[in-house]
Amino acid sequence: MSDTTASPARTVTARSRGLRIALRAVQVLLAVFFAVASALPKLIAHSSAADTFVEMGWGAAGMYAIGVLELAGAVALMVPVLQSVAATALSALMVGAFAVQLTYFDGENAATPLILMVPLLIVARVRRGHNDELRRLVRARVRRG
Fold first, then answer.
1. Strand runs (DSSP E) across the chain, as ranges?
2. Fewer CB within 10 Å, N or C, the chain?
């Protein structure tokens, strides 16, 4: 007698695998967004970014600093041991971006950083298990000196 229905264990495993794949896809999309759409214009001093930073009075140094932070976060989102920390750091950066949108630009595009924070915080929460591994690696490195 053959069983044609999937066992609950297989269903949970398949669902779990599907969720892991979906989360990884979200991470890749976030990394691409932060690297290409957000950091790149700042790092190449594209007029769209440069003019904005001049308008705010932050100049080129502020523009490059934010671009480097975004690029570092994008790269770290793809490194398993750094995923949760990167998502948390990029979320903090988005809090700053939200504040800037409200104060300098009268709320224009203020929803964008908030929208980006949702998947970032999900990644930070789901991948938080890697924080213990990162902590062990850092402690081992500090002990070796």
1. none
2. N
